[in-house]
Amino acid sequence: MRTIRFFHSADEVFDADIEHSIAVVADVLRATTTIVTALANGCRKVIPVVKVEEARQTAALLPKSEIILGGERKGERIDGFDFGNSPQDYTRKAIADKIVVTTTTNGTKALVNAGRAKQTLVLSFLNMTAVADYVLQREEDVALVAAGIYGEFSLEDSVCCGFLMDNQVTASPEQFSMDDQAARILTLSREYKGRVNELMHNSPHGKFLQRLGYESDLAFCARVDACQIVPLYASGCVKTIARH
Can you give the residue range of the structural domain that contains 80? Predict the structure, then answer.
């Protein structure tokens, strides 16, 4: 029997909790959606880092013509960066064959914190079924990590993790048991089946992004199963796992 555990923010994740598990990290508004979009549009890899200066230093070590420097603080593009954290900026024309270096308020921290897992996957609504299918084919326990907001609960990240659980448990109920937090999130997520766009617009962080002028990102991030990639974070970068 495989155990599914849920962590409500990046700050909850410690090495000992996840080192033998598959960690699945969600920051759907907007870091993991942006990473998934960049990879789907042909970037070579994404390098997520925690601090702004670390992003600048990492980019400076690589050929300038190959780098896109992206990220946000308080929802807005960082001064001097090529892009912010809107997935709609990461078009094929802009980022094909490039290396994206990114830092965000919550999502990149969650990925780095979860990096000691046996495998660390990047989840959004866009690649929900692809990641669920991949996890079902494995044998390890599962650690679902909602990036959260400054260490606090994030509704959309938690529901995204809940959708993944629902896919897994429905497909293979004999495989999985859930901890108490995971069971609560699964129940919560079922209230939003078929209502992802509504969820995005009504969540606290969705409302915050609307105030900043990013309302169109909400519909973009709500596109369930828009692509079929499984991004793996390992050795400091995210690449797409080749699937056969």
Answer: 2-240
